[in-house]
Specification:
Chain A is α/β, with parallel strands linked by helices. In chain A, 31% of the residues lie in helices and 22% in strands. Chain B is of the alpha/beta class. Chain B has a 7-stranded mixed sheet, with helices on both faces. Chain B has a 6-stranded antiparallel barrel with strand order 1-2-5-4-3-6. The chains are: A alpha/beta, B alpha/beta. At the A-B interface, strand 5, strand 6 and helix 8 of A face strand 13 of B.
């Protein structure tokens, strides 16, 4: 049996397949469709210090091979997560990662400090790349200094694994990755959504209440693969690759580009069972290619 | 209610007219999931390069005798255009059943449908009739040709019709139909947003309990992505796909 397990910081994933924040709820929304314990890990919805109502409707529109969203981090806040959601999901035998967002540095720190004592949460994903909020979010992730300030503060207050989710809406994503590595990140995940917009030409109105939103889906995949490749060459911490992964082939592509693990996002909407199919594809691929250990594939592109 | 990702075989595709098709579907494994009137399915559309996400379609009818699920499809865009052309014998993959449906109350119930919004009312009317309710249908459309499945509706209740051009039934909108002078214990409604708001306004004035079915644009269908939200009195933004699509008008923040 091929070995699919990978290590991200101090956590071990039984396989490299995770789900992306904001596309998989708290896992339980998909419990009717798949055995959640088969996943390498899942990243729960972006969580903030206080309850957030998110942006007004409409929040999504379908685009060619993808979609734009402008949810705006709707969530009930960290205390609700700890009191009401964590007890329901904590016994799922998979790595549960909490995506953390904030308007200023102290928000990120406060959320991480509250997560620190939870036995079954051994990693946070610091979201410095949400394009759909007015304050914080992507503003931290588009400059090296901004990214560094958040990661340093979190590093000083949280002792478990820190993953930093990077924005692709920058000139040089490798520079940002190097900055967060130097600030103490254990891993980076990329890419979050690309800033985009769409207009209804009949009504002349934007499709989204916020005018602009985040583009995800198969249409962004080649850009995401390129960025994962660039970042994996620039840093020595693990890279988690995501962006338009629709099937097992796409997942392998990200591993070959240098990703140690991958996240599946928008594809969950189209096939709620896709993550399990991806895991099976990787197992089958490793047999076909006589690969015993998944690490032989990571960064394994032949030039 | 447990949700499934399931393959269905198209056993019949009835072209009602140029705009509408009635798809009759059988589960490939023979096992029809439990479902409730007002719930919907997410249909995967193959071979349409302009369709990336699934299409939410409301459950029109559950034919328990023939083990068939009915979907009433209106050609709205590229995805639904592909759907209405689905040949018999082909396969459709669906996530089923989704959302919370209509309440099944007792008494004198008026079901109001406009256009393709009549779809969920057939299944609802049948269940209400079996429960012993006195069911009336008020169905509206632009013209006679846009009124769908009238013979089916007749099996489960009294029919009242409105058409904008007066080609059948009373001329005008459903909200102008004289049946609304009568008294009902409950109104349940599905149709275009302006129609549902007008119905909600009448129900509120007459102090009649009223439910409407929303169709906010959605992605996941299971309450994960939080795209299809509606602002509610009780809980703020909630997912139409999971906490709806049916809402009591008292929980909506509509200006009516």
């Amino acid at each position: 049996m091929a070995n699919l397990s990978v290590k991200i910081g101090n956590i071990e994933l039984k396989n490299p397949v995770m789900t992306a924040s904001g596309t998989f709820g708290y896992g339980e929304e998909y419990a009717d469709f798949i055995d959640l314990s088969k996943l390498g890990g899942f990243v729960v919805k972006g969580t903030t210090i206080h309850h957030r109502e998110g942006n007004p409707y409409p929040r999504m529109v379908e685009t060619p091979s993808g979609m734009l969203n402008a949810v705006g981090l709707q969530n009930h806040g960290i205390d609700y997560f700890i009191d009401s959601i964590y007890p329901r999901i904590k016994d799922i035998d998979s790595q549960i990662v909490v995506n953390v967002s904030g308007s200023d540095v102290s928000d990120y720190v406060a959320v991480c400090e509250k997560l620190q004592p939870l036995d079954r949460i051994n990693a946070v994903e610091i979201n410095i790349s949400c394009p759909n909020v007015k304050h914080g979010g992507m503003a931290f992730g588009t400059t090296c200094a901004g990214a560094e300030s958040v990661v340093k503060a979190v590093r000083n207050s949280y002792s478990k694994t820190v993953i930093v989710k990077l924005s692709p809406n920058v000139t040089d994503i490798a520079e940002i990755a190097k900055a967060v590595e130097a600030a103490g990140a254990d891993a980076v995940s990329l890419v979050n959504t690309f800033l985009g917009m769409a207009i209804n030409v009949e009504t002349r109105k934007p499709y989204l209440s916020t005018i602009t939103g985040g583009l995800s889906g198969a249409c962004i995949r080649p850009i995401a693969v390129r960025m994962v490749w660039q970042v994996s060459k620039a840093v020595s911490i693990p890279v988690i690759g995501l962006g338009g992964i629709m099937n097992g082939r796409d997942a392998i592509e990200f591993l070959l580009a240098g990703a140690t693990a991958i996240q599946v996002g928008t594809a969950n909407f189209i096939d709620p069972t896709v993550t399990i199919k991806i895991i099976e594809y990787i197992e089958d691929y490793m047999i076909r290619h006589r690969v015993d250990n998944i690490y032989e594939l990571i960064g394994g592109m032949k030039i | 209610m447990k949700k499934y990702v399931k393959d269905f075989k198209v056993s019949d595709n009835v072209h009602l007219n140029e705009q509408y098709s009635l798809l009759k579907l059988k589960p490939v494994d023979g096992e029809m999931p439990d479902m409730h009137p007002g719930q919907f399915v997410q249909v995967y559309i193959d071979n349409s390069k302009n369709t990336y996400l699934r299409r939410p379609i409301s459950i029109n009818f559950l034919d328990k005798i023939n083990n068939e699920l009915w979907l009433l499809i209106r050609k709205a865009g590229d995805g639904t255009r592909h759907l209405i052309q689905t040949p018999c014998g082909s396969m459709l993959n669906m996530i089923i059943p989704l959302g919370k449906g209509f309440s099944l109350k007792n008494g004198n119930i008026l079901l109001i449908g406009g256009g393709v919004g009549v779809a969920p009312l057939l299944f609802l009317g049948k269940e209400l009739k079996e429960k012993g309710c006195n069911v009336s249908f008020l169905l509206g459309a632009r013209s006679k040709n846009d009124l769908l499945e009238i013979d089916e509706f007749k099996k489960y209740g009294q029919i009242y019709l409105s058409t904008e051009d007066g080609s059948v039934g009373e001329k005008g909108f459903v909200t102008q139909n004289s049946i609304l002078q009568s008294s009902f214990d409950m109104i349940q409604c599905c149709g275009p947003l302006p129609m549902m708001k007008a119905v909600a306004s009448i129900a509120r004035k007459k102090n009649i309990n009223c439910e409407v079915s929303l169709e906010n644009s959605m992605a996941c269908g299971v309450g994960a992505c939080l795209c299809c939200v509606e602002d509610t009195v009780s809980s703020g933004n909630v997912c139409v796909c999971k906490d709806g699509p049916v809402f009591n008008i008292n929980d909506l923040k509509w200006q009516i």
